[in-house]
Amino acid sequence: MDAEPTTVRVVTGAFLHPFAKPAKERFITLVKGEGSVLWDVDGNEYIDGMASLWYCNVGHGRTEIADAVAAQIGQLETYSCFDPFTNPMADAIAERVAALAPIDDARVFLCGSGSESIDTAMKLARLAHVRAGHPERTLIISRMRGYHGTNYGGTTAQGLPPNKEGWGPLVPDVVQVPGDDIEALATLMAERSSEIAAVITEPVQGAGGVWPPEEGYLESVRRLCDQHGALLIFDEVITGFGRLGQWFGSIHYGVTPDLITFAKAVTSGYQPLGGVIVGKAVTDPLEADADYVLKTGYTYSGHASVAAAALTNLDIIEREGLLGEASRIGARLSAGLRSLADDGVIASVRGDGAVWAAGMHPGVDAAAVRDHMLTSGVIVRAIADHSCAMCPPLVTTDAQVDRIVDAMSTALASVGAR
Questions:
Q1: What are the contacts of 178-183 at 24+ separation with CB within 8 A?
Q2: pLDDT digit string (tens) for 41-52?
Q3: Does the pTM of the predicted model rise above 0.85?
Q4: What is 322-414's CATH number, 3.30.530.20, 3.30.70.1450, 3.30.2350.10, 3.90.1150.10?
């Protein structure tokens, strides 16, 4: 007989935190932010080396966005965009995002998060094939190391096995191939060519540890999708809106997908917004029957006050030239990390644009490095036990970038890295 699980009794608050130990008692309570700097309730200062969670591209404390949201709430906070209604802000942000996207004649589905955008893109990919007369095309292929949110579809598409444990049966006909093995993908697509609905990938695999694509990989995926009649979905929840120095990672790498999921930096986190940029390979079969009703959506799809935040955020990115700041930040950050690698204290440096990771040597716990960096007033994100990720706001100064690197150097010395 299996032993009964040990009961741990702790005093915790009512908030059950995401991606945290349910029995954990103490958290750092952040109360203020300005630019790339945060303060906790005790007055301690931190450099935000993660743009919160890959998203605060314009930095914290932008009262311009707060004012835009307040003005919209004062006029009409929002109203459902289910048929027959819309609102000017929802229409405006859809037009704005479509105009920035690399997909011609795109339309934009709006939702509330990256996880919702992923599940929607997967549904739309399958639906487009059904409407085009190919209901047998249900297979969705993703990559190991990929992270695609935590709704059921995205959880199934993840290439991070620990995140898939304990949830019971997941979505059928979703499979993973090795992260950088184009031959494995080509073999699977050849074997199941007539069944494939879509391939989904991040241009840079982010939450799985910051893994840029190998040279020519994304171009090869595009060719394979064209060859086998599959749709290509780019998960740009992290790479969208400036993280790689362009509006989208697909522009940066010169590969155009059929659908693009987005969230995070579209509002820099000032309000929750996600969406799917949808190309004609999907919209044409959906629009072919004028009486067809698209039966998916969310209560807050097209939320007016959220859209107001997004429009103002995009104004700031354009006005302040923040796309160009990604290369400055990335060059300085990667140079600092490579100096640590040259000194032998980290095993690897990975990244592109303004998103980077330091790979730890075996026996060096990334979470311990993160915790030591927190005591130095710098926030990074530990990826499992193997890497520390950095994704600073695009307003981060050179001096603040140097503080991130210096704090990592000090932390590595504290944990005895060699």
A1: 178/143, 178/144, 179/143, 179/144, 179/145, 179/146, 179/205, 179/208, 179/211, 180/211, 180/213, 180/214, 180/217, 182/217, 182/220, 182/221, 182/224
A2: 999 999 999 999
A3: yes
A4: 3.90.1150.10
